[in-house]
Design a protein that fits this description.
GO molecular function, one term: peptidyl-prolyl cis-trans isomerase activity
CATH superfamily of the largest domain: Porin chaperone SurA, peptide-binding domain
CATH topology of the largest domain: Triger factor/SurA peptide-binding fold
Order of helices and strands: EEHHHHHHEHHEHEEEHHEHEEHE
Keywords: Isomerase, Rotamase, Signal
Structural class: alpha+beta
Distance between the termini: 40 Å
CATH class of the largest domain: Mainly Alpha
Protein name: Parvulin-like PPIase
InterPro entries: OMP_Chaperone_SurA, PPIase_dom_sf, PPIase_PpiC, Trigger_fact/SurA_dom_sf
Number of strands: 11
Radius of gyration: 26 Å
Length: 421
């Protein structure tokens, strides 16, 4: 008998194999035809550009090859999802896509659609590429709502049991987590784990978690940048719960092996369950800004900043802010209903320690201008709010829909006719 077969995949593979033909997949051109629909090299280039821009261009040659391969896989899945929706006569109109594109421009970039168009083209991507991604996400969600959601059932007993456990956990912590999930089989787990380690490296080098989650995560939360919202550790798989318990806000860890694949976790925030959290206080603020003329020297900027700081400290409360800002040549904007936890982490504790009428230290830069935030009002949280019956039911339903969606996509891949060029 030949050399022993040590294969544990269940495929009965020999210990040593001889490859016939080209064994280097990187020599293939990154294009494919999916059930007759072409994915071009330009499609891959433009989608890759979104990730490169999110990483501020800091991607190595080796990482770029892996990134292109992963983007191609994502485009194939996206194509399968759009095709499956069309086969079910689910149509997403151009107007719906444009409306979402406009919202993305305003929420994520602070720009108008026209400005986002120009930005995408400047980084080597295109509006069409981002709109196709939006189309894929919307088509897939509509398909799941028609073919999966109606068949997911959560009983009242399950919801009441979770609410009881939630009340029993009052005062313990819940975690707002971001997740990038990639499915793996016994034959692909080594490659998937290696890919996840590369993503971790990019994230720790300053890459955007939201951008990577949107492009690479295979969970339904990819459309919202991987954000799971606030969850209790008991509701997570044991492997993820154990990892999250040791994390601090802002930390990214992984890859973590769990049922069916690997996950990368990002701890966005954590708070006590059903307990008042000072960071849930709602603030009324005045933002006072000072811009420096182009070409201002460091010495002049330092002098103007000292003067600005003294003048702001002399303002006699929020009622005096508008007139005082005009005298010192500063701009002022009012912001109401701002939650403390929505502010940058460096400002949160500062704001909690301020009294009405007091201001933060100046922050910013010569190039972008400096500003202070003046506290004009604060409504402190009284008690932590328990989720409603409907909210808990929705959470349980979404978890089950997500698992079925992964199986649905796996079946689409298995039935697809894909030709690589």
């Amino acid at each position: 008998m030949d050399e022993a077969n040590n294969d544990t995949s269940g495929l009965d593979l020999p210990a040593n194999i001889s490859l016939l033909g080209n064994s280097n997949p990187n020599e293939r051109k990154p294009t494919a035809v999916v059930n007759g629909q072409v994915i071009t090299g330009t499609d891959v280039d433009q989608r890759v550009a979104l990730v490169v821009a999110a990483n501020k261009g800091k991607i190595s040659e080796e990482e770029m090859q892996r990134l292109r391969a992963q983007v191609l896989r994502n485009l194939i899945d996206e194509t399968l999802e759009i095709q499956a929706a069309k086969a079910q006569e689910i149509e997403v109109s151009a107007a719906q896509v444009d409306e979402t594109y406009k919202r993305v421009a305003q929420q994520n970039f602070g720009q108008s659609p026209a400005a986002l168009d120009a930005h995408l083209e400047s980084i080597g991507s295109s509006p069409a590429s981002l709109k196709r991604q939006i189309l894929g996400e919307m088509a897939w969600q509509q398909l799941l709502r028609r073919n999966v959601s109606p068949f997911v059932n959560v009983s009242s007993e399950e919801v009441n049991e979770m609410l009881a456990r939630l009340n029993a956990s009052r005062g313990t912590e819940e975690y707002r987590l971001g997740e990038i999930y990639m499915a793996a089989t016994p034959t692909t787990q080594a490659q998937v784990e290696a890919n996840m380690r590369k993503i971790i490296e990019q994230l720790r080098s300053g890459g955007s978690f939201v951008a990577y989650a949107r492009q690479f995560s295979e969970a339904s939360t990819a459309a919202v940048g991987g954000d799971l919202g606030f969850v209790r550790l008991e509701t997570l798989p044991a492997e993820l719960a154990a990892a999250a318990r040791e994390m601090q806000p802002g930390q990214v860890i992984g890859p973590i092996a769990n049922s069916g694949g690997y996950s990368i976790l990002y701890l966005i925030d954590k708070k006590a369950i059903l307990s008042a959290d000072p960071r849930d206080a709602t603030l009324s603020l005045k933002q006072i800004s000072l811009n420096f003329p182009k070409g201002t020297s460091k010495a002049d900027a330092t002098k103007r900043l000292e003067t600005f700081t003294q003048q702001v400290q002399a303002i006699k409360g929020c009622g005096d802010a508008e007139a005082s800002a005009a005298k010192i040549g500063a701009d002022i904007v009012s912001n109401d209903n701002i939650r403390v936890r929505a502010l940058p982490e460096q400002l949160q504790q500062i704001m909690l320690n301020l009294q009405i009428g007091q201001s933060t230290p100046p922050f910013g830069s010569v190039e972008e201008g400096v500003r202070v935030l003046m506290l004009c009002g604060r409504d402190d949280p009284q008690t932590g709010d328990a989720p409603s019956f409907d909210q808990v039911m929705s959470q349980l339903e979404n978890e089950r829909i997500d698992k079925r969606a992964q199986r649905y996509l796996r079946d689409l891949r298995n039935d697809a006719y894909i030709v690589y060029n």
